[in-house]
Design goal:
heterodimer; A: 82 residues; 3 helices; flat; B: mainly alpha
Amino acid sequence: MILLLIGAALCAGIVASALLAVHLGNTVSAAISAGMASLFAAITYVVLAAPDVAMTEAAIGSGLTTVIFLYAIRRTSEPPEQ
Amino acid sequence: MIKRAAALLSLLLLGLVFLRLVVDYAPHTALNPISEHYVAAGPDELGAANIVTAVLVTYRGLDTLGEVAVFFISAAGVGLLLRRRERDMGKTTTHRPASELVGTAVHFLLPLIFLLGAYIFINGHLTPGGGFQGGAVLASGIMLRLLADPHARLRHRTVHLLESSAGFGYVLVGVLGLALAGGFLDNRFLDLGTFGELFSAGAMPIIYVLIGVKVGTELGAVLERMKE
């Protein structure tokens, strides 16, 4: 029962952060919310006894992807150089 | 208006595709025959304590080789798109230096992060994790280093040498399996050893170390490209 509640809360977290990522106007905040969705997914995988997948999701989904998004946002939003 | 309707329609169609999955969903009560074979015979056949690794590296080794190839192609694509042009070569962009907190923490954390990454892929056949996870941890270490010192550069020659020799080694191990054991990427051309020991499961640790090095260097190179 408790496990079910935890699972439901985590899934709600995934959906909430994904919705935030879509609706936030600021791209940096959106990228971070997308990373949060991955983090919730990673915790869900741990709860579902899939540590291998959870490690990948945490390292790549919420870590590296977020940073690559942030770098990409910085590169594309730089003011044109003279 | 038409655009909206089209978007709504495609959403509905997508929902229809997933609807069947949700409606027909019934939790599995037993393993399907092939999973059962992997779970029952895997430890004896291949000597790996971590069944996930046994499946990824050996039973489905060719798929993993394909994944590594996809990784390589995407990293090469990023490198091609973000290559430094001739006219940018002389230009040095000034970055704001990282805070002292980050700079000091890197000196403490970087060896530990690299150690953790190496631990994850060396023990891939015993504990959760493996080449991809360990490689991603290595890359996060590289990322931390790049964050702390914006002027840090990877040694491209070393990175390329490591990456290509790891990729070559992976295929070589696969061919050795074909020549000396049952098939491509068969891990049994080396002694299976004692179940649960570090040096066991035949060629599995070697394959995962090679994948770890390859993924780590590739992701690190992508991060550096993005940062420039």
